[in-house]
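Handout for the seminar on molecular recognition.
Each group receives one record of this type.
Step one: identify the two inputs.
Step two: read the structure output and locate the region that could contact NAP.
Step three: write two sentences on what you found, then compare them with the reference statements printed after the record.
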Amino acid sequence: MTMDSKPLFGKVALLGIGLIGSSMAHAMRRAGLAAHIAGFARNPETLDAAERIGFADSLHDDPRAAVRDADFVVLATPVGAFAELAKEIAPHLKRGAIVSDAGSVKTAVIGAVAPYLPQGVHFVPAHPIAGTEQSGPEAGFAELFDGRWCVLTPAAGTDSQAIETVKTFWRRCGSEVETMDAKHHDLVLAITSHVPHLIAYNIVGTADDLEAVTQGEVIKYSAGGFRDFTRIAASDPTMWRDVFLNNREAVLEMLGRFTEDLTALQRAIRWGDGETLFNLFTRTRAIRRSIIDAGQDTAAPNFGRSRARRS
Ligand code: NAP
């Protein structure tokens, strides 16, 4: 057995076994990272689906039972549920355990979770920057994190061994790992993820409200661009409501910039300023090129046919 094939943890508890939690379980199984994977969800249908798929060794409808004797506990529910969960599990955590999460926002999550954690438990917040518009235990797959970044945002003074262990965990799940300050993470993700989702939700909502254009036409002619926004706008409503409620400051700051730039474009269109439009569109095309060069997407044209399941 090589060093890399040894389980990193005895028991891992996944609190939330939807897209992210179940993908973590599949990736853990693939890499042999845990001797025992415990999963928690509230609804019997979620637990039944997880049982059918078989990515966990034990399933629980009580988070306290799931975390008992766990070496690694990951919060993977919508972030609005983290505080309550942390409060509930805190007295049942094993001394020396590492608590982490997969939440899409970090400052608010740290504020919601850290105060409940007892001495001797290490908190290493994480955000795997990988996802799809699907949710639930059936949506997960082992390759979700391959080649994607996972950002860790531990507070200063966090046990360095615990941080190293979480880095190793994510690398063995296929990710590349970066560490940054939680506030900076929230600003970066506001522009790379949260505002784009808000724009998608908004444009799809606007189209749905139109009276002069029928819904049938919106759907029929969607390949003109609209369709690509609908994929993002199909993302889980609970998760995304919680993201906006918990990353308010950063999202509002980026939205302010976005609105100013949109007004400048509106003005360029009004005044027939083709040069401004052309220059911007040339700059943005180069950004697409850099994303492909960085291996974060492929250059293959996508005419609505399914390709890799990851986004
Ligand atoms: P998901 O597929 O909707 O799964 C959520 C899981 O949490 C389910 O097991 C659900 O099961 C459980 N849950 C929901 N509400 C709960 C509550 N109030 N209390 C306890 N359990 C609850 O969501 P996901 O996409 O995996 O997202 C999970 C986390 O990962 C979120 O914090 C999100 O911000 C983050 N994240 C998501 C993505 C993405 O693209 N989706 C990417 C990176 C990070 P029951 O309903 O049966 O309880």
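Reference statements: The mean pLDDT is 94. The chain has two domains: 9-180, 184-272.
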